Each structure stands twice: as structure tokens, then as C-alpha cells.
Amino acid sequence: MINLAKKRLLLGITGGVAAYKAAELVRLLVRQNVEVQVVMTQAACQFIKPVTMQALSGRPVFTDLWDNRIDNGMAHIDFTRDIDVAVVAPASADFIAKLAHGLADDLLSTLCLARMCPLLVAPAMNRQMWENPATRRNVAQIGADGITILGPDSGAQACGETGMGRMLEAEDLMAGIEAFFQPKLLQGRHVLVTAGPTFEAIDAVRGITNSSSGKMGYAVARAAMEAGAEVTLVSGPTCLKPPAGARVVNVTTAQQMLKAVNESVNWADIFISVAAVADYYVLNPSEQKIKKDAHILTLELAPNPDIVSNVVNLPNPPFCVGFAAESENLHEYAEMKRRRKNLPLLAANLVQTAIGGDDNELVLFDDDGDHPLPRAPKITLARQLIAHIAKLYQKIQKDGKSA
Asked: Which of 212, 232, 377, 389 is disulfide-compatible with 247, CB 3.0–4.6 A?
């Protein structure tokens, strides 16, 4: 997997109140040992001072095309010759227009025109500016020119209005930069992921569920998107923020999850069943809260559908990946489950090591045996899992076999 340490990044900051988020982005980048060179427009200096960005980046900040600190007077050439990526965040409507039309009237716009590296931009503007046809044309043009666009997001804006145009938060920008460097192993593929727990009602306030946080499923969805896939995420109840750009279907019960999967599976190339689905639902749930008394409460439970088995048994199923959480005998039970469900790949872990945390450890089971993935952050494991899936999927495609 790609490590950002020692990557060289040029961060351009244009005029806008979202410039304050650029300071947090620099902090996150430096924490990952990325070398950050900041270039600011004169308008950006009205919102955040160069000395702040210099303190955070540990490098001089440049704002002037004619800065005499550059011996040959060619900062617009020198700055992009030895960097891995340039990021403009925030990118104002005016600056996006400059990029679209090849204008170069200051240091940042000139070096973007003269660059020999990829360029990512994070738009930030009032919602009317974002929705203006001229801005839509300019954004479409820079996208067609090969510039990667990060965001924007929808939400409250400094003007007091709410809508699209708000710049992504620093953590989301960081995720976008990390995603840019990931190998595009699933480019053009459609991936369907289930994540989180399900909830089966007992009465108006109580239910059967489990302690799944959904973090692993959301990490898998993010890793699939980083690999270039189009992702649909079917999610049970969680408090997590979905990865930017994923199509999200929120469900509560196992029956709702099955319905959502069935509605999306026909176009999926790969199905990854990460969700911790309740095995049973209550046959006789109460519409009202059941009052506590001294009597024994009896519930009738019926088995929920096995979602991954339903998908595997379709006439033309996608490549299916299952997950198993065991409390003992991991290898024995996981491999037994893989064979019983006829899965080409199953990822398994012990519940004692994973539920709710940010780290995990997995063992992958396929026809070639078991492949341990040592303890690591869940996003790291998700990227390793996606790489393994891509390898198996490509092999099946090459051999002309059905999943």
C-alpha cells in the first residue's frame, strides 16, 4: 500500500474563509511526514497569514511571482518540478475559472499552468456561485483536463446560507489525497458493500442487535473507492460518516438490507458482505413499549435470510466476499463457513480483537489457503483486502470462470 511519508506536496491557498481549514490540512500532512510547500494568493493572505502556514509547514511560504528568494526568478517553474502532487484548497470560483481558461496572472495560477505534476482542487464558494452555469462549465472543463476535484460538500456556509459549495473538512481532504495515490486496481468496476449491524424490533423501543460499529465495512467501502470502483454502501444503523462519493442506502432490519442488496446487485461486479446481520427477528413485535412486570417474557424468533448465500445462488452472481466473526476456532469455523457458502474469499477475525475498535487483524481464506493480515488500522486492512480481491477477481476474469 502507498505510504505518504516523504511525499512532496505543494499546497495552494486562494481567497476564501475556508482558508482556515488549510491550516489543519497542513498539520495532518506534516504528521504523516509529507513535505509541504505552501503558496498563497494575495487574496488568501486576507484570510490567513503566511506566518501561520510557515509555522505549520516548517517551510517558507511564497505569495509573489517576483519573490527575490528564488535565485533564477522562476518559482513558477521550480516549485512543481520535484513534487508529487499539487493541491489547491480552498479553490475559489475565480481560481477555477483561471484554471479552465489557462490564465496565469500570479504565482499560484502560473505554476499550475506550468506544472509537471498532478493537480487536485477543493472548491469552496457560496452555493449560488457553485450552482452558477459558468462555474459548472469551468468545473466540467478542468475535470476533462485531468484535474481531480475533491468535493465540495453541502452544509452551513459563512454567508449564513446552506447548500453545496462548502469546502471539504481537512480530514476528508486528507482522505482524498491518500485515495489519489492508491493503485486503481478496480477502476471501472462496481462494488456493493454491506456494513454495520441490523436491528430487529422487540417493541417500540427495544430490539435485537449486536455490537458491530460498522467501521470495517465503511473502511472497505472507502478502500474500494480509492481503488477506482463505483461503490454502493448498504448500511445498518451507525454513527459513521460514509466515504465521500459513495452511493449510500440506509437500512435498519435484515429484511431491508436484503431488499437493498437485491435492488443493487444486478450491476455489481463484486459483492462484499461485511455487515453483522442479526440471525433472527421477532415474529411478534409489539407496536407499543412492553411494560415491565414480574412475568417471564416469551419471544418467538424466526431466522433471517442469509444475504450472502442469496447473492451467491443468483443465476449470474458477482464475485462474492464474506466476513466471519468467531469467538473460538477461527480457522476451522471460517473455512467451514467459506466452503458451505461456496465463497471464493472469506475474511475472518476473532470478535475479542475487533468489535468497535479502530484496529483489527484478519485472516483471509481462499482456495489457496489462509493469508493472515497482522493487526493494523482498519483502513490499512481494508486496502490489503481490496488488493487481494482485485487479484482473485482479475484471475477469474482472465480464466473466464464464474464467481
From this structure: 232
**3-state class (DSSP) for residue 57:** helix
- In terms of residue numbers, what domain contains 380? 190-399
CATH of the domain at 355: 3.40.50.10300
| 260 neighbors 236 (Cβ within 8 angstroms) | no
Q: Does residue 128 share a domain with residue 58?
A: yes
Give me the number of domains the chain comprises: 2
- Phi (first) and psi of residue 214, to 5 degrees: 85, -5
22, containing H or E segment: helix 19-31
The two counts, helices (H) then strands (E), for the chain are 14, 19
**Which amino acid would we find at residue 388?**
H
In this structure, the answer to whether residues 104 and 150 fall within a common structural domain is yes
Enumerate the H helices of 114-159 as residue ranges: 127-131, 133-144
Distances (CA, A) of 191 to 186, 242, 268, 327, 331: 9, 15, 6, 29, 27
pLDDT digits (tens, 9 = 90+) for 4-32: 878 999 999 999 999 999 999 999 999 99
What whole-number distance in Å separates Cα of residue 19 and Cα of residue 8?
21
Per the residue annotation, which of 45, 112, 117, 159 is the catalytic one?
159
What is the per-residue pLDDT for 403? Answer: 44
The number of residues in the chain equals 403
320 is known as an active-site residue: no
Domain boundary (181, 206, 225) is at 181
